Please model this.
Amino acid sequence: MGSPLFQRVCIAGIGLIGSSLARAIRARGLAGTVVTYDASPAVRAKALELGIVDDAPADVGQAVAGADLVMICTPVGAYAELAEAMAPHLAGGAIVSDVGSVKQAIIRDVSPHLPDGIHLVPGHPVAGTEHSGPEAGFAELFEGRWCILTPPPGTDAAAVDKVAALWRTIGSNTEVMDPQHHDQVLAITSHLPHLIAYTIVGTATDLEGSLKQEVIKFSAGGFRDFTRIAASDPVMWRDVFLNNKEAVLEMLQRFTEDLTALQRAIRWGEGEKLQDLFTRTREIRRGIIDARQA
Ligand code: NAP
Model:
Protein backbone atom coordinates (compact mmCIF):
# COMPACT_ATOMS: atom_id res chain seq x y z
CA MET A 1 0.00 0.00 0.00
CA GLY A 2 1.50 3.39 -1.00
CA SER A 3 0.78 6.74 0.60
CA PRO A 4 -1.89 8.76 -1.20
CA LEU A 5 -0.46 10.63 -4.18
CA PHE A 6 -3.73 12.56 -4.47
CA GLN A 7 -6.32 13.70 -1.95
CA ARG A 8 -9.34 13.36 -4.19
CA VAL A 9 -9.44 11.73 -7.61
CA CYS A 10 -12.46 12.21 -9.85
CA ILE A 11 -12.88 9.71 -12.66
CA ALA A 12 -15.17 11.05 -15.37
CA GLY A 13 -16.63 8.05 -17.22
CA ILE A 14 -16.41 4.82 -15.24
CA GLY A 15 -16.48 2.14 -17.95
CA LEU A 16 -13.80 -0.47 -18.65
CA ILE A 17 -10.82 1.88 -18.34
CA GLY A 18 -12.22 4.26 -15.70
CA SER A 19 -13.31 1.44 -13.41
CA SER A 20 -10.00 -0.41 -13.85
CA LEU A 21 -8.22 2.79 -12.85
CA ALA A 22 -10.51 3.29 -9.84
CA ARG A 23 -9.83 -0.28 -8.73
CA ALA A 24 -6.06 0.04 -9.21
CA ILE A 25 -5.91 3.43 -7.41
CA ARG A 26 -7.85 2.01 -4.46
CA ALA A 27 -5.85 -1.23 -4.36
CA ARG A 28 -2.63 0.79 -4.04
CA GLY A 29 -4.07 3.41 -1.67
CA LEU A 30 -3.15 6.19 -4.10
CA ALA A 31 -6.04 8.53 -3.28
CA GLY A 32 -7.78 9.67 -0.10
CA THR A 33 -11.12 9.61 -1.93
CA VAL A 34 -12.16 8.31 -5.36
CA VAL A 35 -15.35 9.72 -6.86
CA THR A 36 -16.86 9.38 -10.29
CA TYR A 37 -19.03 11.33 -12.63
CA ASP A 38 -20.70 9.29 -15.37
CA ALA A 39 -23.41 10.43 -17.76
CA SER A 40 -25.37 7.24 -17.14
CA PRO A 41 -27.37 6.94 -13.86
CA ALA A 42 -27.26 3.13 -14.18
CA VAL A 43 -23.45 3.18 -14.47
CA ARG A 44 -23.14 5.52 -11.46
CA ALA A 45 -25.34 3.18 -9.41
CA LYS A 46 -23.32 0.16 -10.57
CA ALA A 47 -20.01 1.83 -9.61
CA LEU A 48 -21.34 2.45 -6.09
CA GLU A 49 -22.72 -1.07 -5.85
CA LEU A 50 -19.36 -2.55 -6.90
CA GLY A 51 -17.73 -0.49 -4.14
CA ILE A 52 -15.06 0.92 -6.46
CA VAL A 53 -15.78 4.60 -5.68
CA ASP A 54 -16.70 6.54 -2.53
CA ASP A 55 -19.27 8.75 -4.24
CA ALA A 56 -20.93 9.19 -7.63
CA PRO A 57 -22.78 12.50 -7.80
CA ALA A 58 -25.12 13.15 -10.71
CA ASP A 59 -23.70 16.65 -11.04
CA VAL A 60 -20.34 17.07 -12.78
CA GLY A 61 -19.52 20.23 -10.79
CA GLN A 62 -20.04 18.42 -7.50
CA ALA A 63 -17.92 15.50 -8.69
CA VAL A 64 -14.86 17.51 -9.72
CA ALA A 65 -15.04 20.06 -6.86
CA GLY A 66 -11.99 19.73 -4.60
CA ALA A 67 -10.35 17.06 -6.78
CA ASP A 68 -6.58 17.42 -7.23
CA LEU A 69 -6.78 14.91 -10.12
CA VAL A 70 -9.57 14.66 -12.66
CA MET A 71 -9.11 11.71 -15.01
CA ILE A 72 -11.32 11.80 -18.12
CA CYS A 73 -12.21 8.24 -19.19
CA THR A 74 -15.16 8.79 -21.55
CA PRO A 75 -15.21 8.20 -25.33
CA VAL A 76 -13.14 10.92 -27.00
CA GLY A 77 -16.16 12.57 -28.67
CA ALA A 78 -17.53 13.58 -25.24
CA TYR A 79 -14.43 15.46 -24.09
CA ALA A 80 -15.18 19.02 -25.31
CA GLU A 81 -18.61 19.24 -23.70
CA LEU A 82 -17.39 17.59 -20.52
CA ALA A 83 -14.37 19.92 -20.21
CA GLU A 84 -16.62 22.94 -20.67
CA ALA A 85 -19.03 21.69 -18.01
CA MET A 86 -16.36 20.87 -15.43
CA ALA A 87 -14.09 23.90 -15.99
CA PRO A 88 -15.81 26.41 -13.65
CA HIS A 89 -15.76 23.90 -10.78
CA LEU A 90 -12.13 22.74 -10.96
CA ALA A 91 -9.98 23.39 -7.90
CA GLY A 92 -7.01 25.74 -8.42
CA GLY A 93 -3.86 23.81 -9.32
CA ALA A 94 -5.79 20.64 -10.21
CA ILE A 95 -4.39 18.22 -12.77
CA VAL A 96 -6.69 17.18 -15.60
CA SER A 97 -5.55 13.97 -17.29
CA ASP A 98 -7.18 11.36 -19.48
CA VAL A 99 -6.90 7.92 -21.08
CA GLY A 100 -8.16 8.65 -24.60
CA SER A 101 -6.85 6.67 -27.55
CA VAL A 102 -6.07 9.80 -29.59
CA LYS A 103 -4.09 12.74 -28.29
CA GLN A 104 -3.99 15.75 -30.65
CA ALA A 105 -7.77 16.01 -30.79
CA ILE A 106 -8.22 15.86 -27.04
CA ILE A 107 -5.70 18.66 -26.49
CA ARG A 108 -7.62 20.66 -29.11
CA ASP A 109 -10.95 19.93 -27.39
CA VAL A 110 -10.00 20.26 -23.73
CA SER A 111 -7.30 22.90 -23.33
CA PRO A 112 -9.38 25.92 -24.52
CA HIS A 113 -11.81 25.32 -21.64
CA LEU A 114 -9.31 25.01 -18.81
CA PRO A 115 -8.75 28.06 -16.59
CA ASP A 116 -5.21 29.30 -15.85
CA GLY A 117 -3.44 27.27 -13.20
CA ILE A 118 -5.00 23.94 -14.23
CA HIS A 119 -2.46 21.42 -15.56
CA LEU A 120 -3.46 19.31 -18.58
CA VAL A 121 -1.45 16.06 -18.72
CA PRO A 122 -2.94 13.86 -21.48
CA GLY A 123 -2.25 10.13 -21.27
CA HIS A 124 -3.05 6.87 -23.03
CA PRO A 125 -2.71 3.48 -21.38
CA VAL A 126 -1.99 1.01 -24.17
CA ALA A 127 -4.07 -1.66 -22.50
CA GLY A 128 -7.64 -2.79 -22.89
CA THR A 129 -10.09 -5.50 -23.78
CA GLU A 130 -13.08 -5.76 -26.10
CA HIS A 131 -15.46 -5.40 -23.13
CA SER A 132 -17.17 -2.24 -21.85
CA GLY A 133 -18.70 -0.91 -18.65
CA PRO A 134 -17.75 -0.83 -14.95
CA GLU A 135 -18.16 -4.58 -14.42
CA ALA A 136 -15.59 -5.33 -17.15
CA GLY A 137 -12.77 -3.51 -15.35
CA PHE A 138 -10.03 -5.05 -13.19
CA ALA A 139 -7.17 -3.58 -11.16
CA GLU A 140 -4.41 -5.48 -12.98
CA LEU A 141 -5.33 -4.25 -16.47
CA PHE A 142 -2.40 -1.84 -16.70
CA GLU A 143 0.31 -4.08 -15.26
CA GLY A 144 3.28 -4.50 -17.58
CA ARG A 145 1.65 -2.26 -20.22
CA TRP A 146 2.78 1.13 -21.52
CA CYS A 147 1.13 4.40 -20.62
CA ILE A 148 2.07 7.18 -23.06
CA LEU A 149 1.93 10.76 -21.74
CA THR A 150 1.68 13.61 -24.25
CA PRO A 151 1.94 16.89 -22.30
CA PRO A 152 1.68 19.99 -24.52
CA PRO A 153 4.82 22.20 -24.55
CA GLY A 154 5.16 24.22 -21.33
CA THR A 155 3.24 21.79 -19.11
CA ASP A 156 4.29 21.91 -15.46
CA ALA A 157 6.94 19.20 -15.04
CA ALA A 158 5.81 18.38 -11.49
CA ALA A 159 2.27 17.65 -12.76
CA VAL A 160 3.65 15.32 -15.46
CA ASP A 161 5.81 13.55 -12.85
CA LYS A 162 2.82 13.05 -10.57
CA VAL A 163 0.70 11.48 -13.32
CA ALA A 164 3.64 9.30 -14.39
CA ALA A 165 4.12 8.21 -10.75
CA LEU A 166 0.45 7.17 -10.60
CA TRP A 167 0.78 4.95 -13.69
CA ARG A 168 4.06 3.45 -12.56
CA THR A 169 2.65 2.62 -9.13
CA ILE A 170 -0.20 0.68 -10.72
CA GLY A 171 2.27 -1.34 -12.78
CA SER A 172 2.67 0.50 -16.09
CA ASN A 173 5.79 1.66 -17.89
CA THR A 174 5.55 5.31 -18.91
CA GLU A 175 6.89 7.21 -21.89
CA VAL A 176 6.52 10.88 -22.80
CA MET A 177 5.75 11.44 -26.49
CA ASP A 178 4.79 14.23 -28.85
CA PRO A 179 0.98 14.06 -29.40
CA GLN A 180 1.26 13.99 -33.19
CA HIS A 181 3.79 11.16 -33.05
CA HIS A 182 1.51 9.27 -30.67
CA ASP A 183 -1.39 9.53 -33.11
CA GLN A 184 0.75 8.21 -35.98
CA VAL A 185 2.15 5.30 -33.99
CA LEU A 186 -1.27 4.29 -32.68
CA ALA A 187 -2.83 4.64 -36.13
CA ILE A 188 -0.73 1.69 -37.31
CA THR A 189 -0.51 -0.35 -34.09
CA SER A 190 -4.11 -0.05 -32.98
CA HIS A 191 -6.48 1.97 -35.13
CA LEU A 192 -5.76 0.31 -38.50
CA PRO A 193 -5.92 -3.25 -37.07
CA HIS A 194 -9.35 -2.42 -35.64
CA LEU A 195 -10.50 -1.00 -38.97
CA ILE A 196 -9.32 -4.14 -40.77
CA ALA A 197 -11.07 -6.39 -38.24
CA TYR A 198 -14.31 -4.40 -38.54
CA THR A 199 -14.04 -4.71 -42.33
CA ILE A 200 -13.41 -8.47 -42.45
CA VAL A 201 -16.20 -9.23 -40.02
CA GLY A 202 -18.48 -6.83 -41.90
CA THR A 203 -17.66 -8.54 -45.22
CA ALA A 204 -18.43 -11.96 -43.70
CA THR A 205 -21.76 -10.82 -42.33
CA ASP A 206 -22.72 -9.60 -45.80
CA LEU A 207 -22.19 -13.08 -47.29
CA GLU A 208 -25.28 -14.92 -48.36
CA GLY A 209 -27.00 -17.82 -46.55
CA SER A 210 -25.03 -21.06 -46.29
CA LEU A 211 -21.62 -19.42 -46.70
CA LYS A 212 -22.38 -17.15 -43.76
CA GLN A 213 -23.24 -20.17 -41.55
CA GLU A 214 -19.94 -21.82 -42.43
CA VAL A 215 -18.02 -18.70 -41.40
CA ILE A 216 -19.14 -19.17 -37.79
CA LYS A 217 -18.71 -22.95 -37.86
CA PHE A 218 -15.14 -22.85 -39.17
CA SER A 219 -14.12 -19.56 -37.56
CA ALA A 220 -11.11 -21.12 -35.79
CA GLY A 221 -9.28 -20.87 -39.13
CA GLY A 222 -8.39 -17.25 -38.31
CA PHE A 223 -11.66 -15.34 -38.56
CA ARG A 224 -12.34 -15.84 -34.83
CA ASP A 225 -9.32 -13.72 -33.85
CA PHE A 226 -10.67 -10.81 -35.90
CA THR A 227 -14.12 -11.12 -34.32
CA ARG A 228 -12.62 -10.46 -30.87
CA ILE A 229 -11.17 -7.15 -32.04
CA ALA A 230 -14.32 -6.31 -34.01
CA ALA A 231 -16.38 -6.77 -30.82
CA SER A 232 -14.77 -3.64 -29.33
CA ASP A 233 -16.93 -0.75 -28.15
CA PRO A 234 -18.69 0.87 -31.16
CA VAL A 235 -18.94 4.38 -29.68
CA MET A 236 -15.33 4.44 -28.52
CA TRP A 237 -14.09 3.34 -31.95
CA ARG A 238 -16.38 5.66 -33.89
CA ASP A 239 -14.79 8.53 -31.94
CA VAL A 240 -11.24 7.25 -32.48
CA PHE A 241 -11.65 7.26 -36.28
CA LEU A 242 -13.39 10.63 -36.34
CA ASN A 243 -10.63 12.14 -34.20
CA ASN A 244 -7.50 10.62 -35.76
CA LYS A 245 -8.58 11.07 -39.35
CA GLU A 246 -5.32 12.20 -40.95
CA ALA A 247 -3.01 9.57 -39.45
CA VAL A 248 -5.49 6.74 -40.05
CA LEU A 249 -6.07 7.77 -43.68
CA GLU A 250 -2.31 7.95 -44.28
CA MET A 251 -1.72 4.46 -42.84
CA LEU A 252 -4.73 3.13 -44.72
CA GLN A 253 -3.28 4.45 -47.97
CA ARG A 254 0.01 2.62 -47.33
CA PHE A 255 -1.85 -0.53 -46.34
CA THR A 256 -3.95 -0.43 -49.52
CA GLU A 257 -0.82 -0.15 -51.65
CA ASP A 258 0.78 -3.12 -49.87
CA LEU A 259 -2.42 -5.13 -50.23
CA THR A 260 -2.47 -4.41 -53.95
CA ALA A 261 1.15 -5.62 -54.20
CA LEU A 262 0.18 -8.87 -52.47
CA GLN A 263 -2.81 -9.26 -54.78
CA ARG A 264 -0.44 -8.97 -57.71
CA ALA A 265 2.02 -11.49 -56.22
CA ILE A 266 -0.80 -14.01 -55.81
CA ARG A 267 -2.09 -13.39 -59.33
CA TRP A 268 1.36 -13.91 -60.89
CA GLY A 269 2.25 -16.86 -58.68
CA GLU A 270 5.19 -15.05 -57.05
CA GLY A 271 5.60 -17.49 -54.15
CA GLU A 272 9.00 -16.17 -53.13
CA LYS A 273 7.57 -12.68 -52.55
CA LEU A 274 4.80 -14.09 -50.38
CA GLN A 275 7.15 -16.26 -48.39
CA ASP A 276 9.61 -13.40 -47.83
CA LEU A 277 6.89 -11.20 -46.39
CA PHE A 278 5.43 -13.95 -44.20
CA THR A 279 8.91 -14.71 -42.86
CA ARG A 280 9.50 -11.06 -41.95
CA THR A 281 6.12 -10.75 -40.23
CA ARG A 282 6.80 -13.83 -38.15
CA GLU A 283 9.84 -12.03 -36.74
CA ILE A 284 7.62 -9.14 -35.61
CA ARG A 285 5.51 -11.57 -33.58
CA ARG A 286 8.66 -12.96 -31.95
CA GLY A 287 9.77 -9.40 -31.09
CA ILE A 288 6.43 -8.70 -29.38
CA ILE A 289 6.73 -11.90 -27.34
CA ASP A 290 10.30 -11.01 -26.35
CA ALA A 291 9.13 -7.53 -25.27
CA ARG A 292 6.49 -9.22 -23.06
CA GLN A 293 3.65 -7.42 -24.87
CA ALA A 294 2.02 -10.58 -26.26
P1 NAP B 1 -16.66 2.38 -21.83
O1 NAP B 1 -16.45 1.07 -21.11
O2 NAP B 1 -17.75 2.48 -22.83
O3 NAP B 1 -16.86 3.52 -20.73
C1 NAP B 1 -17.11 4.87 -21.04
C2 NAP B 1 -18.03 5.44 -19.98
O4 NAP B 1 -18.14 6.86 -20.19
C3 NAP B 1 -19.46 4.88 -20.08
O5 NAP B 1 -19.95 4.54 -18.80
C4 NAP B 1 -20.24 6.05 -20.67
O6 NAP B 1 -21.62 6.07 -20.30
C5 NAP B 1 -19.51 7.23 -20.06
N1 NAP B 1 -19.77 8.48 -20.76
C6 NAP B 1 -20.03 8.71 -22.06
N2 NAP B 1 -20.19 10.03 -22.29
C7 NAP B 1 -20.03 10.66 -21.09
C8 NAP B 1 -20.09 12.01 -20.67
N3 NAP B 1 -20.33 13.00 -21.53
N4 NAP B 1 -19.89 12.29 -19.36
C9 NAP B 1 -19.64 11.29 -18.47
N5 NAP B 1 -19.60 10.00 -18.81
C10 NAP B 1 -19.77 9.68 -20.09
O7 NAP B 1 -15.32 2.84 -22.60
P2 NAP B 1 -13.79 2.47 -22.29
O8 NAP B 1 -13.41 1.28 -23.07
O9 NAP B 1 -13.56 2.52 -20.82
O10 NAP B 1 -13.07 3.71 -23.00
C11 NAP B 1 -12.96 4.96 -22.35
C12 NAP B 1 -11.80 5.75 -22.94
O11 NAP B 1 -10.61 4.97 -22.82
C13 NAP B 1 -11.95 6.11 -24.41
O12 NAP B 1 -11.56 7.45 -24.62
C14 NAP B 1 -10.98 5.18 -25.12
O13 NAP B 1 -10.44 5.77 -26.28
C15 NAP B 1 -9.92 4.96 -24.05
N6 NAP B 1 -9.22 3.66 -24.13
C16 NAP B 1 -9.93 2.51 -24.29
C17 NAP B 1 -9.27 1.29 -24.38
C18 NAP B 1 -10.03 -0.01 -24.59
O14 NAP B 1 -9.42 -1.02 -24.95
N7 NAP B 1 -11.31 -0.05 -24.33
C19 NAP B 1 -7.86 1.24 -24.24
C20 NAP B 1 -7.16 2.43 -24.01
C21 NAP B 1 -7.85 3.63 -23.97
P3 NAP B 1 -22.69 5.42 -21.37
O15 NAP B 1 -22.36 3.97 -21.40
O16 NAP B 1 -24.01 5.73 -20.76
O17 NAP B 1 -22.45 6.11 -22.66
Summary: The beta strands are 6-12, 31-37, 69-72, 95-98, 119-121, 123-125, 146-149, 173-176. The two ends are 28 Å apart (CA to CA). The pocket of NAP is lined by residues 12-18, 37-40, 43, 73-76, 78, 82, 99-101, 125, 128-129, 132-133, 233, 236, 240 (CB under 6 Å).
